[in-house]
């Protein structure tokens, strides 16, 4: 890869009947471990939206002999960052700890998974916090738009519901329902994926796996309902009193195991990626000053994906912004990227690889994402050669297949003009 | 949260990034910071030296990955925006990507990306910083381009209008489109004064941003973007010798103008003796969730004055009072069922003046009176009875426990070093900050509390329309 000689050796570690991927690195005395189960908010029963996320938050609000404050002190006294969370399609846990605090981090993580207390006052506090977050997210165009966008794209699937729940569902959740949300996920199941990064050897990690997960019951996590294709809903306006409209746009993506996945990523880097170089940033921000930031990418949900993006612009300029956006979408679909654009983007994606691995949490998260996406161990090592092999013709073909200018669905939250 | 990125987190929170989501001999031999008596190892092991043109150079090696972070911090921020020209420092930062003598407009970021790197910039009240993260062998490329725009940024007239619209969209997105953003801006303006450097929005008042000109930028750049007012920070997989050579070759030749001021003494207007108002109540129809603020003017670390001795004790006080679960406010407001959340914020390194600020999200069934009374009672208890040794020990422990986590990222070291040095903090104060926190005593915390919290404060409410 451009002569950087960078590589990230990944070890496969087995312990207690579980397998973890490890990127070992002793340069800083810190260890990050992260793990996930499939499911997440998608397994919340109808009417119990937000159960998985609220239950995840409650896991660190007192466990075992420790009440909520004692648990928080135990974490903060040793600067242990322990978190559980639920998103659209998974339930995750993880921690980062300095090496001397590792035994305590393992003990607290295990306690949180096996003996969360769910005390009434803690449940009341976390419920109030979740309600406040949901209500606050609906104060501005961004939150209102996002809720409407996903609801319209997946009208009949849990993926279209707000992951954090609604005011109604959160108010009605019982402790039994919250405990059930944990029980649905916290298992030594085939779907439990684990990765680690930092100052820990393979043997140490192998010994730690049973300590962390050994007490969890065996069993399989239930399958969510099959994900339908993201529905085309045209243009949707959500009235919000605001001088600026939030614009969310999207269309169906491709599965993560599609052979064209990386070519699609390359095309999207050129069309809508981060940094100042993408076409959308150039024509919408740099040339016309229509927005502070615009980007789009493939959002993975249960191995499928949605090509989703967003930007924000003054109400009076929504029409112009969408016109330029659609024109760029169409231009890329019809002509694909230029050879020079491909060369630049491949150089970036290849040369950027070492910069992805400077933070133990991020490294562990990348390994976990590789596992969730079913990538082989040498996925990163061989990525530069795969990228280098992509031709302009292939990229144009994938752009034509992926991008559907007429199939772009748009949610505008605000008081837009010119639609 | 842990204290690891204490200083980094502060600058990130208070700063506006440019993109959303996006030869001379050394005057003195490079030297590491002198340790305070009886102290431990320095956090970063950084070296610092000065070029003859006045540029401060800082290097800290870290061989974890074959990458480097290259930052230039200018000791100028929104706090130096001229009267009536709020937003100039920030707008200019955006325009620094529009070309210099040897780098055409837009080419800077394109070249960095072509080499696999990432670049961006940010403006806070006290500093403006430009940075690139690149694979180590690309360091000369970015240093050359950064030096070029330090010396010869062009601010092309034909690109100013589109960028002005970008800045105004950024303002709408951050401030104008949510009631919370509007309230925050109004709070600062009412607290410090709408035209006081501390009370103006970093991004600027919209009518003033609309009037900023190319001449304003040229003048500002000429005055403040000079080596003597800049700090170059390079960290990562690079030796001190390589950085010294690079600094000399790329930056050493820039003709220096005198620094406009010492980095910590910028001639800013003094803080008012007390907040200009006692109360701000803002009601908006879109507010779903009330918010409560209470703030006091407080001394901070830079510039070093008699009152700066209170800064570290205030940092401990802030944690003890509202540093998350188990803090006094958490017990009195959150655990008691009055509030959803309660925090205390204090920025030790804010230049010139700081503030201690409580922010509370009340539960819906708690009346404003009841919540205010509970806050007042907690403050009074603190003033009357002081704090305990156990509380101070707990806060010191939790603030410093994660110090080493600052090494677990590429950006923390250069941000902590650069943002501190650019406001005139000494290197040893940054390298050994945990020791300074550990030296804080109960008596000092009580002195800080009585000095600051007994003063006049300001109370603010953001409420749904029609609420009591």
From TrEMBL, chain A:
Native source organism of the sequence: Teichococcus coralli
Peptidase M16 C-terminal domain boundaries: 173-347
A Pfam family hit: Peptidase_M16_C
Protein name (record): Insulinase family protein
A GO term for molecular function: metal ion binding
UniProtKB/TrEMBL annotation, chain B:
Stretches for region Disordered: 254-277
Cofactor(s) named in the record: Zn(2+)
Molecular function GO labels: metal ion binding; metalloendopeptidase activity
Any one GO biological process: proteolysis
Peptidase M16 N-terminal domain ranges (all copies): 57-192
Keywords: Hydrolase, Metal-binding, Metalloprotease, Protease, Signal, Zinc
Family: Belongs to the peptidase M16 family.
Record protein name field: Insulinase family protein
Organism of derivation: Teichococcus coralli
């Amino acid at each position: 890869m451009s002569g950087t000689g960078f590589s990230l050796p990944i070890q496969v570690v087995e312990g207690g009947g579980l397998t973890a991927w490890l990127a070992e690195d002793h340069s800083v005395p810190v260890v990050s471990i992260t793990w996930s189960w499939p499911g997440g908010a998608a397994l919340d029963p109808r009417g119990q939206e937000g159960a998985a996320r609220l239950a995840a938050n409650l896991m660190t609000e007192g466990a075992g002999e420790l009440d909520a404050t004692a648990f928080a002190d135990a974490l903060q006294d040793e600067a242990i960052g322990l978190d559980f969370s639920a998103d659209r399609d998974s339930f995750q846990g993880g921690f980062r700890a300095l090496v001397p605090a590792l035994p305590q981090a393992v003990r607290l993580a295990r306690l949180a998974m096996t003996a969360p207390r769910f005390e009434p006052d803690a449940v009341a506090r976390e419920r109030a916090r979740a309600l406040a977050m949901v209500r606050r997210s609906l104060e501005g165009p961004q939150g209102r738009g996002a809720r409407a966008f996903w609801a319209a794209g997946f009208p009949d699937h849990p993926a279209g519901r707000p992951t954090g729940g609604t005011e109604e569902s959160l108010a009605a959740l019982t402790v039994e329902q919250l405990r059930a949300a944990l029980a649905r996920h916290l298992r030594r199941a085939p779907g439990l994926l684990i990765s680690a990064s930092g100052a820990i050897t393979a043997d140490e990690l192998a010994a730690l796996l049973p300590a962390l997960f050994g007490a969890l019951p065996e069993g399989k996590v239930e399958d969510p309902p099959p994900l339908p294709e993201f529905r085309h809903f045209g243009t949707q306006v959500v009235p919000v009193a605001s001088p600026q409209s939030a614009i969310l746009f999207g269309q169906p993506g491709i599965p993560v195991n599609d052979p064209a996945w990386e070519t699609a990523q390359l095309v999207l880097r050129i069309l809508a990626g981060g940094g100042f170089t993408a076409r959308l940033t150039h024509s919408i921000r740099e040339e016309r000053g229509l927005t502070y930031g615009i980007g789009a990418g493939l959002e993975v949900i249960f191995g499928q994906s949605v090509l989703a993006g967003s930007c924000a612009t003054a109400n009076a300029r929504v029409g112009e912004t969408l016109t330029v956006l659609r024109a760029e979408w169409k231009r890329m679909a019809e002509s694909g990227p230029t050879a020079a654009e491909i060369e630049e983007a491949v150089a970036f994606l290849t040369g950027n690889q070492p910069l992805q691995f400077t933070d133990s949490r991020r490294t562990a998260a990348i390994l976990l994402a590789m596992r969730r996406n079913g990538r082989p161990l040498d996925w990163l090592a061989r990525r530069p050669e795969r990228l280098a092999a992509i031709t302009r013709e292939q990229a144009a073909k994938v752009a034509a297949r992926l991008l559907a200018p007429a199939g772009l669905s748009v949610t505008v939250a605000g008081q837009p003009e010119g639609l | 949260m842990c204290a690891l990125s204490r200083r980094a987190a502060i600058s990130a929170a208070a700063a506006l990034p440019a993109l959303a989501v996006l030869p001379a001999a050394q005057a003195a031999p490079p030297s590491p910071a002198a340790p305070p008596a009886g102290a431990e190892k320095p956090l970063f092991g950084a070296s610092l030296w000065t070029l003859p043109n006045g540029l401060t150079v800082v290097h800290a090696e870290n061989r974890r990955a074959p990458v480097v972070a290259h930052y230039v911090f200018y000791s100028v921020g929104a706090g130096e925006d001229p009267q009536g020209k709020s937003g100039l420092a920030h707008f200019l930062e955006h325009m620094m990507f529009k070309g210099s003598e040897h780098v055409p407009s837009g080419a800077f970021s394109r070249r960095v990306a072509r080499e696999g790197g990432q670049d961006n910039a940010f403006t806070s009240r006290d500093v403006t910083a430009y940075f690139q993260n690149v694979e180590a062998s690309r360091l000369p490329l970015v240093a050359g381009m950064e030096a070029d725009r330090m010396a010869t940024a062009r601010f092309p007239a034909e690109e100013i209008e589109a960028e002005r619209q970008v800045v105004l969209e950024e303002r709408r997105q951050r401030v104008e489109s949510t009631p919370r953003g509007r309230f925050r801006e109004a709070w600062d303006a009412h607290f410090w004064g709408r035209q006081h450097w501390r009370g103006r929005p970093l991004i600027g008042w919209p009518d003033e941003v609309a009037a900023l000109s190319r001449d304003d930028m040229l003048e500002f750049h000429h005055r403040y973007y000079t080596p003597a007012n800049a700090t170059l920070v390079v960290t990562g997989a690079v030796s001190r010798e390589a950085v010294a050579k690079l600094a000399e070759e790329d930056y050493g030749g820039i003709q220096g103008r005198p620094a406009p001021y010492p980095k910590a003494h910028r001639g800013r207007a003094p803080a008012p003796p007390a907040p200009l108002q006692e109360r701000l109540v803002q009601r908006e129809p879109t507010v779903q969730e009330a918010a409560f603020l209470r703030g006091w003017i407080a001394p901070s670390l830079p510039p070093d004055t008699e009152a700066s001795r209170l800064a570290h004790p205030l940092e401990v006080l802030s944690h003890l009072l509202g540093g998350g679960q188990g803090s006094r406010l958490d017990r009195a407001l959150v655990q008691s069922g009055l509030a959803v959340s309660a925090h205390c914020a204090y920025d030790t390194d804010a230049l010139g003046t700081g503030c201690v600020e409580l922010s509370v999200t009340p539960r819906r069934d708690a009346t404003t009176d009841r919540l205010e009374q509970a806050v007042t009672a907690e403050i009074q208890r603190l003033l009357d009875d002081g704090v305990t040794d156990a509380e101070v020990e707990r806060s010191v422990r939790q603030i410093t426990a994660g110090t080493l986590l600052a090494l677990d990222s590429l950006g923390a070291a250069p941000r902590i070093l650069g943002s501190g040095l650019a406001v005139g903090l000494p290197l040893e104060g940054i390298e050994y900050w945990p020791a300074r926190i550990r030296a804080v005593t109960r008596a000092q915390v009580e002195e800080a509390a009585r000095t600051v919290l007994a003063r006049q404060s300001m109370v603010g409410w953001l409420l749904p329309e029609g609420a009591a």
